[in-house]
Amino acid sequence: MEKRIPEPKSSSILRAIAIFEGGKGLAGIAASLGLLSLAHHDISALAYALIGHYHLDPEAHFPRMLLDEAAWLQSADLRQVVMLACGYSLIRFVEGYGLWRDRTWAEWLASCSGAIYLPIEISHMLKHPSWINAMVLAFNAVVVIYMVIRLWQRRKNLTPKLVSTQ
């Protein structure tokens, strides 16, 4: 009977991040499909109907954001938006696969792609402080720091050691 060696904790963390990245990829695909379903509709009218259905004030912060985004989406080239969302999803799936397989290139991708969002998240947090924004910023920062530490440890383990002959 073969004895199984438990995986190190770092491997479990890496796999959890890989699953999270795959989830973001699925969310991107779902958003793409949702956008495609709106291709021949008046998106602004749909947004107003949604706001009216829930008896929201169209001048309140979040309903106003919805209306602004609907107006932008109405004038945007939907094919380009869908292609960008699919590209984003592909990157997330590739990153998730690489992290699941414990690949160095995926750790580089995760640390760089996560670090790109940090200034945006900090700016958003400063303009709109909330617990959700703080949690998103903290989670992303922890993932970036974790990936950088793993990359640093890999580099340290691959660096040849000089042996003293005294």
Explain briefly what this protein structure is.
The protein is 78% helix and 0% strand. It has helices at 9-37, 43-53, 61-75, 78-100, 104-127, 131-158.
How would you explain this protein's 3D organization?
There is one protein chain. By secondary structure, the chain is mainly alpha-helical. It folds into two domains: 10-102; 103-156. The protein has helices at 9-37, 43-53, 61-75, 78-100, 104-127, 131-158. The model has no long low-confidence stretch (mean pLDDT 89).
How many E-type strands?
A: 0
Mean pLDDT: 89
Radius of gyration: 22 Å
- Give me the number of helical elements: 6
The sequence of SSEs as H and E is: HHHHHH
What are the segments in which pLDDT stays under 50 over at least 5 consecutive residues? none
Helix content: over 70%
Count up the domains.
2
Describe the global form: elongated
Strand percentage, roughly? under 5%
Q: What is the distance, rounded to the nearest whole angstrom, between the alpha carbons of the first and last residues? A: 47 Å
Q: Largest sheet, if any?
A: none
Structural class by sheet pairing and helices: mainly alpha
Give the helix/strand layout:
Layout (H helix, E strand, L loop, with lengths): L8 H29 L5 H11 L7 H15 L2 H23 L3 H24 L3 H28 L8
